[in-house]
Fold this protein.
Amino acid sequence: MLYSDPGERELRQRKQTDPTRTRRNFELHTTMRVHFEERYDAVASLDSTRVVWTHPEAGLTDELLAIGRRSARSEVHLFDTLLDRLTTGL
């Protein structure tokens, strides 16, 4: 999973300089940033190799692609653990 949060200031600047998009849900999505990060933190706590916190300058390298999918990516206990970590604040 790739995660990138350029920050609210940068997002607002992008919005102002790009008149081609309406961004009608911009405020909602901007306020949700903290929750997205919490979710990615919880996923990373289950498997630290699954979250790349910044976009790699070299792009998606063979090394990153070789990580592949989690072998147990859909097991119920993993989902329950993820939910527990989200509700208890890790």
